[in-house]
Amino acid sequence: MYGWLNATEMMTTSNDSVADRIQDNFERLTRAERQLAGALRENYPVSGLGSITTLAENAQVSTPTVVRMVRKLGFAGFPEFQAALKRELEAKISNPIAKHESWAENAPDEHPLNQFTEAVIDNIHQSLAQVDHEVFDRACGLLADPSRQVFIVGGRISRSLSDYFYMHLQMIRAGVHPINAANNNWPHSILDMKAEDVLVAIDMRRYENSTIKMAELAQERGVRLILFTDQWGSPVSKFADMSFSSKISVPSAWDSLVVTLLLMETMVADVQRRSWNNTRNRIEELEEIFDRTRQFRKFT
Amino acid sequence: MYGWLNATEMMTTSNDSVADRIQDNFERLTRAERQLAGALRENYPVSGLGSITTLAENAQVSTPTVVRMVRKLGFAGFPEFQAALKRELEAKISNPIAKHESWAENAPDEHPLNQFTEAVIDNIHQSLAQVDHEVFDRACGLLADPSRQVFIVGGRISRSLSDYFYMHLQMIRAGVHPINAANNNWPHSILDMKAEDVLVAIDMRRYENSTIKMAELAQERGVRLILFTDQWGSPVSKFADMSFSSKISVPSAWDSLVVTLLLMETMVADVQRRSWNNTRNRIEELEEIFDRTRQFRKFT
DNA sequence: GCTTTTCTGAAATTTTTGTTTCAGAACGAT
DNA sequence: ATCGTTCTGAAACAAAAATTTCAGAAAAGC
Predict the structure, then answer these.
(1) Nearest to A297 among B168, B207, B252 (CB)
(2) pLDDT of A96 higher than 50
(3) Is the minimum distance from the CB of A63 to strand D below 7 Å?
(4) Phi (first) and psi of residue A161, to 5 degrees
(5) What is the DSSP letter of B173?
(6) Which nucleotide lies closest to A71 by the C1' atom and the CA atom?
(7) Residue A126: CA atoms inside 13 Å, Cβ hemisphere, count?
(8) B54 beta carbon < 7 A from strand D?
(9) Collapsing DSSP states into helix, strand and coil, what is residue B243?
(10) Cis (ω within 30 of 0) for the bond into A146?
């Protein structure tokens, strides 16, 4: 299986940059070594110029791991590896052409990867600037309140995101319920909503009638509504207590949900933090169940 | 005796660059020290990053001379001097996209929104740098090839993303099939895979045994495997023809899939572009079906 | 020229860095 | 469950780097 990799290995020992060598040999690296590779990439190549001890500590691995990795990359030892880094640096310094920043570094600027990423960064920028952090905090507070049930609903496209959000919230706390707006059982879920419960709705372009209807019914029951929508705002926002809009335009025939995912993940992180005291056991139990079922692997 | 010089010395110990300090203290340097200073200026600052011995040899002076000089410049010893050089270098090299001050503009920097976003941007940066655009293009080519069936599988957490990917791809072209790794019907799907078909797998931390098994079986049938994984690399990568890794670490108890989503969306955009001629009708038909069912609202 | 002061590097010493070994942990196969 | 394999870091060890000491060389003063 690794037949061809051996050839690669021999090639990479010649005069590629250290970064390239890491790239090329990445498959062959072990878990700890990959962690080290990651640490090395932050602030590359300066990060590798300290002592082997410093580098190891930085990457939270042992010094032998460092030695093993640089050997895999084709160097005789750490000093040789460091010398290579220094040569690279020298070349880089002496060539002060302030090259326009490119995301996928070896791809031309007009490559879809660069164009798309550029747009997404811009979306993040513009969307985040609009978020009121107090509203955000308030939303997290609601979601972390164990006395409230939380219902989560997404549309046809945003279903993936609502699933994702549901899954995390469900691990963090009890009383979280997914609603499937697509099948027509959803009115049953409304029955279970009490005043002061929370409904999280995601409704993006191609706003869905069922989501609007659900929001309306929920509001009548005194449910607090948190809405994730796009930059134009779903009609659901009429009923929302708090609403977060993300810019979704990218050079594509389709919209981008990256910003919404970012907001959700941030919210999950914060709710987790707030809930920690109430439900720390929950996670530990979950871990244990995973271990017991051995369905998932911890590493490698 | 050095009464007035002490004052100078104190001034220069603050936070000037090493070059400045040499400049300021040049008068006070002895012959051998000036020779050293000269050597240091050639190829500054990289020249100072080796060992004290190397530097001394380079400048043709003794190591004690080096120590004495760096002390005169206000450093406690050679290592401290070198650390200063490294910091300078870091600042010089480090990303021209200077850290953006604050994302959620009215929130304090330490607000979760800003912290989290900062981490995500960093993840994007580091992950994209690692993507080989030729591999990316090749993957898009496979996915756009109408003669191949495409199967998509995700794990417990990454299911949401695989759904999302499936949904888009399915709109773009025919012959796209989701696989549910969780339920034990998935071996049935394997039956339908022919050589040269494509399997897209998403396997992130907490790598799942069923995904690995599926990858192996698929490979035996000559299926091309495209893998999305995290920075450590799922064991599935052993079987993958192309693999894309995203950095997923954020200040949270959970991992971030933002980068993976970004990669997927970019890929969807590109596949769409490539498939346009083959399946332009498909989208139009879809539009019409939506209109007929009146399930979605175009505006407001 | 002679003395005093300052400067310099060889060599000894201390500290740190880099490498190797090895036992235990995690993993993978059965 | 168990057994062989691979991976990992603690600790021992070797190598080197950094510092200090000190005697002799160079420079300055007289």
Answers:
(1) B207
(2) no
(3) yes
(4) -70, -40
(5) -
(6) C19
(7) 13
(8) yes
(9) strand
(10) no
Give A1-68 as a DSSP string: --HHHHHHHHHHTSS--HHHHHHHHGGG--HHHHHHHHHHHTTTTGGGSS-HHHHHHHHTS-HHHHHH
CA distance B37 to chain A (A): 18
Contact B129 A41 (CB under 8 A): yes
B37: its two tokens: 């200073």
- Residues of chain B in contact with residue A299, where contact means CB-CB under 8 angstroms, are 232
Strand, coil or helix: what is A300? coil
Answer yes or no: do B50 and A253 touch at CB < 8 A. Answer: no
Instruction: Give the alpha-carbon dihedral of A81, A85, A87, A90, to 10 degrees.
Output: -160
pLDDT at A200 over 70: yes
Query: What is the residue whose two structure tokens read 């797998």?
Result: B201
Chain A segment 169-228 residues within 8 A of B by beta carbon are 206-210
Structure tokens at A68: 């093993």
DSSP state string for A106-169: TS-TTSHHHHHHHHHHHHHHHHHHH--HHHHHHHHHHHH-TTS-EEEEE-TTTHHHHHHHHHHH
Is the pLDDT assigned to residue B242 strictly greater than 80? yes
C-alpha A126/C-alpha B104 separation (Å) is: 9
Residue A218 and residue B29: Cα distance in Å, rounded?
A: 80
**Residue of B118, B143, B276, B296 for testing the chain A interface, max A β-carbons within 10 Å:** B296
**Sole residue written with tokens 């401290």:** B80
**How confident is the model over B47-71, as a mean pLDDT?**
91
pLDDT at A292: 57
CA dist A24 and A170 (Å) reads 39
- Which among A261, A263, A267 is the top mutation candidate for probing chain B, defined by the most B β-carbons within 10 Å of its own β-carbon? A261
pLDDT of residue A117: 95
Confidence of residue B224 (pLDDT cuts 50, 70, 90): very high
Determine whether the interchain pair B163/A163 forms a contact, defined as Cβ–Cβ distance below 8 Å.
yes
Q: What angle do CA B118, B98, A266 make, to 5 degrees?
A: 10
What's chain B's Rg over C-alpha atoms?
29
Contact B129, A105 (CB under 8 A): yes
Collapse the DSSP code of A289 into the 3-class scheme (helix H, G, I; strand E, B; otherwise coil) and give the result.
helix
Residue A82: closest CA among A65, A103, A64, A67: A67
